[in-house]
Specification:
With 311 residues, this protein is an alpha/beta fold. It is built from twelve helices and 13 strands. The termini are far apart.
């Protein structure tokens, strides 16, 4: 990513784990960053995707800033919450990003929209890992809102980049992602129910950030799958993390999705193929679970030490 000396990259939704990794990756490059959050935050731009209805609003908010790209990382990702608030899910996951995409197109800025494997149905007779040209058939409001977002963003900005990813894990300053929930439970001896019939391709958040920036640098556009190289179910994912960190995997209780009683339907036989990414940009390598856990071992063990000392 190249730009003028004073230009910054707008990172929409910088408080989430992926947004935070995008900010860190940009800062490590010495690149200017303009992060956003829904709530007021010193030095950040306040931006709520659910309230962004027109390009005029985006213009009033952003024209004073010298930008070189817009990374729309933020979204309504609480899958069951989307099911109960479909209008809000649409505004956050489709309408708001499309408004930003139209603004970026008019300004001649690169635009990235983050999507999900939930745009696919994950049915046993139509299983993943899915390629970019597989036919979307979302089962949930979350999946439908993201699929609508993809189409509306590309309509507004035909040169935009849509990055689909799935099961993101890794260092999280807020300590809220699935990896931290798992460590928190196992470190304190708390049993944890885990779906053993949800199959996907877990994705390391640091690699997701670096690869996305690499795609922007290369001028990539259209849909790309950026996900981990290994296909596994959620229980195996959790067990492998427990083993790597010396935690008690016996506390993990494998359950079916039906037994867990989740509100929104999930794509069970899912995951994303990264063959297109590998063929077109072989230098953008996504690491395995073992490699990724080794990369962030220090941060994870510091967190575990804090948890165990509080018992």
């Amino acid at each position: 990513m190249t730009s003028g000396a004073d230009a910054a990259t707008l990172v929409v939704g910088a408080t989430g784990q992926v947004g935070l990794q995008m900010v860190k990756a940009l800062e490590a490059r010495g690149h200017g960053v303009l992060p956003t959050a829904r709530a007021a935050k010193a030095g950040w731009l306040q931006l709520d995707l659910s309230q962004l209805d027109s390009e005029a609003q985006a213009t009033a908010m952003l024209d004073e800033h010298v930008l070189d790209a817009v990374l729309c990382v933020g979204g309504m990702t609480h899958v069951d919450g989307c099911e109960s608030e479909p209008d809000l899910a649409y505004r956050v996951n489709a309408r708001g990003p499309a408004v930003l995409a139209a603004y970026a197109q008019r300004r001649g800025l690169s635009f990235v929209f983050f999507s999900t494997d939930y745009v696919f149905d994950g049915l046993k007779d139509n299983p993943g890992p899915y390629t970019e040209d597989a036919l979307p058939n979302p089962l949930s409001v979350y999946g439908r809102s993201k699929w609508m977002g993809e189409r509306e963003v590309l309509d507004a900005h035909p040169e935009a980049l849509v990055v689909r990813t799935t099961i993101v894990y890794g260092p999280d300053d807020r300590q809220k992602n699935y990896l931290y929930s798992l460590m928190r439970n196992l470190a304190t001896g708390t049993p944890m129910r885990v779906p053993q019939d949800q199959i996907s391709t877990p994705t390391y958040n640091r690699d997701l950030a670096q690869t996305t920036l690499g795609l922007v640098d290369a001028g990539a556009s259209g849909v790309f799958h950026v996900a981990g190289p290994e296909l596994m179910d959620r229980l195996e994912f959790a067990q492998r993390i427990a083993t790597a960190l010396g935690l008690d995997g016996a506390l993990l209780q494998g359950m079916s999705t039906a037994e867990l009683g989740q509100t929104a339907p999930r794509p069970l036989w899912s995951g994303l193929s990264t063959e297109k990414l590998t063929n077109m940009y072989p230098q953008q390598r996504m690491r395995s679970l073992a490699e990724s856990l080794k990369d962030c071992d220090t941060e994870l063990r510091e967190f575990l030490a804090q948890q165990q000392s509080s018992i």
